[in-house]
């Protein structure tokens, strides 16, 4: 998934020294990617927000060469393939009339994730694409290969035109956190405990994002701490159309919020927005199937200070153990 940046994401793939970074600079009409004649200059995927004339704001993802070698090279190739899951459009860059297993592997991943893509033969000023390669690409992808050279301006406009035609309309749609479940004028109650895990003098990002999204959808956001819920519910008019709570006080919120008012958590809202929520829902029933000795891997992507009652290391393991009634092993 694209994450917080909702602009169209375009991934650039190909062998080392095929001119991927030069192609990005050409499209941006400025030097935004490091270019070198030394193969392997780009080692890890790098996102670059830019404006392409005729297309608008996009995020270009420059990736390591698909033919990188060695143990470290294999890891870089793995990172490159992971990018495919996040893009709206891929551009496979060839050069020197090479189209072999490395290119076919990228195409297999693009097809697997149903990502539209273009095939570009770069450095046409040095070696034009051959009829044999045109035929092979057409047979493998059903696409006509695009000739390209950063030294000849006419190719740039043709590629921009092809990108415009290939990017799906859904790439330009800005997702909303709660816009599809609330209506104009709705009141949304947000329950936000202020404890030792809360950052000093500010709210955490998910809370801020939800407040902004509520306002963007012409609804009303009311923020309160968990100990104020019962009193607040008696005063609020209209009643909340939705309640969103911090996960660690979900039990308290569930006991206080009437059953006819929808209740969810900030974590669930963000998971639905950023991840494959259908797979998440399909996976939750397996919590009831846990057995003694099962190992649970907990992944944390935030950089908060670890506290004595940390949610990832203490609370979630405790909740899972209490829910399952099993002796489980955890790795964070």
Characterise this structure.
The protein has 332 residues and is α/β, with parallel strands linked by helices. The protein has helices at 20-28, 70-83, 101-112, 131-141, 153-166, 205-216, 229-235, 250-256, 266-274, 277-283, 311-324; strands at 9-14, 46-52, 56-62, 89-95, 117-122, 146-147, 187-191, 220-224, 242-245, 263-265, 295-297, 329-331. It has three domains: 9-172, Rossmann fold (3-Layer(aba) Sandwich), CATH 3.40.50.300; 187-273, Rossmann fold (3-Layer(aba) Sandwich); 288-331, Rossmann fold. The protein has eleven helices and twelve strands. Strands 2-3-1-4-5-6 form a six-stranded mixed β-sheet, with helices on both faces. A four-stranded parallel β-sheet has the order 8-7-9-10, sandwiched between helices. Strands 11-12 form a two-stranded parallel ribbon. Strand 9 (242-245), helix 8 and strand 10 form a beta-alpha-beta unit. It starts with 8 loop residues before the first strand and ends with a strand.
Beta-sheet strand percentage?
15-25%
Q: Which structural class matches the secondary elements?
A: alpha/beta
Averaging pLDDT over every residue, what do you get?
88
Describe the sheet with the most strands. Answer: 6 strands, mixed
Broad CATH class of the largest domain:
Alpha Beta
- Write out the CATH superfamily name of the largest domain: P-loop containing nucleotide triphosphate hydrolases
According to DSSP, the number of beta strands is 12
Radius of gyration: 25 Å
Q: Give the end-to-end Cα distance, rounded to a whole number of Å.
A: 23 Å
For the largest sheet, list the strands in their spatial order.
Answer: 2-3-1-4-5-6
């Amino acid at each position: 998934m694209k994450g917080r940046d909702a602009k169209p994401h375009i991934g650039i793939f190909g062998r080392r020294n095929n001119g991927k970074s030069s192609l990005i600079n050409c499209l941006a009409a400025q030097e935004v990617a490091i270019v070198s004649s030394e193969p392997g200059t780009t080692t890890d995927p790098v996102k670059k927000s830019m404006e392409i004339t005729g297309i608008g704001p996009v995020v270009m993802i420059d990736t390591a060469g698909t033919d990188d070698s060695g143990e470290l090279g294999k890891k870089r190739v793995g990172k490159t393939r992971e990018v495919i899951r996040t893009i709206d459009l891929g551009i496979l860059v060839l050069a020197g009339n090479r189209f072999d297993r490395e290119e076919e592997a990228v195409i297999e991943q693009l097809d697997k994730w149903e990502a539209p893509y273009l095939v570009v033969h770069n450095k046409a000023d040095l070696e034009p694409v051959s009829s044999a390669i045109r035929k092979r690409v057409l047979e493998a992808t059903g696409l006509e290969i695009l000739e390209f050279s950063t030294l000849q301006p006419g190719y740039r406009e043709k590629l921009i035109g092809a990108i415009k035609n290939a990017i799906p309309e859904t790439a330009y749609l800005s997702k909303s956190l709660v816009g599809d479940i609330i209506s104009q004028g709705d009141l949304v109650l947000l329950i936000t405990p202020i404890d030792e895990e809360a950052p000093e003098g500010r709210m955490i990002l998910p809370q801020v994002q939800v407040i902004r999204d509520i306002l963007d959808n012409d609804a009303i956001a009311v923020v309160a701490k968990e100990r104020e819920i019962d009193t607040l519910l008696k005063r609020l008019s209209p009643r909340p159309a939705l309640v969103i709570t911090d996960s660690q006080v979900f039990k308290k919120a569930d006991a206080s919020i009437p059953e006819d008012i929808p209740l969810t958590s900030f974590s669930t809202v963000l998971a639905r927005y950023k991840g494959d929520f259908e797979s998440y829902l399909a996976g939750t029933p397996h919590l009831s199937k846990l057995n003694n000795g099962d190992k649970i891997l907990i992944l944390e992507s935030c950089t908060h200070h670890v506290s004595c009652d940390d949610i990832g290391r203490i609370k979630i393991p405790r909740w899972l153990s209490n829910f399952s009634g099993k002796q489980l092993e955890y790795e964070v």
